[in-house]
Write a structure and sequence with these properties.
By secondary structure, the protein is α+β, with helices and mostly antiparallel strands. The protein has one domain: Histidine kinase-like ATPase, C-terminal domain (Heat Shock Protein 90). The protein has four helices and seven strands. The longest helix has 17 residues. The radius of gyration is 16 Å and the shape is globular. The chain starts with a helix and ends with a helix. The relative contact order is 0.21.
């Protein structure tokens, strides 16, 4: 799954001054029972948005295993989102900057789709952002199981 996630994000367009990094656990021996296609689309949409709103600095994808959950953390050093706009970012076809002079393309379904898929996978998504400093999206998905539990299933 990790190779699929990395491959699906490797060719996404980004500004020259933006580095792209992955942090993963040293031991990836755990199995995750989930829908790889949905997880891949979620990560791709979050990384694509991070690149879109980051002109310098970095985008970091961090994968962690926490008990029986997979945690996917996507953070950037981009323009950030104001506290007032955080409640609407997961609405369908809603963008924070709806003005005619906005600098970023798109029609707004990306984060709506992310939220829908994460919910359908039984997970949660949280966002923290500081205007002018960047954003961090944290997804927690159930489905990590030990070899012992996997054999029983």
């Amino acid at each position: 799954m990790l190779q699929t996630l990395q491959a699906s994000t490797a060719g996404l367009p980004r500004a020259d001054g933006v580095s792209f990094e992955w942090e993963t656990p040293a031991d990836l021996g755990q199995h995750v029972l989930t829908d790889r296609t949905k997880v891949s689309l979620v990560v791709r949409n979050l990384v694509s948005n991070a690149f879109k709103f980051t002109s310098q600095g970095k985008v970091l994808v961090r994968l962690l295993l926490r008990d029986t959950a997979l945690v996917i953390d996507v953070s950037d050093t981009g323009i950030g989102i104001s506290t007032d706009n955080l409640p609407i970012i997961f609405d369908m076809f809603r963008q924070v900057d709806g003005s005619m002079t906005r600098r970023h393309d798109g029609v707004g379904p990306g984060l709506y789709i992310v939220k829908q898929f994460v919910t359908r996978l039984g997970g949660t998504i949280e966002v923290a952002s500081t205007l002018g400093r960047g954003s961090r999206f944290c997804i927690v998905l159930p489905g990590v199981c030990s070899d012992q539990r996997r054999s029983a299933a």
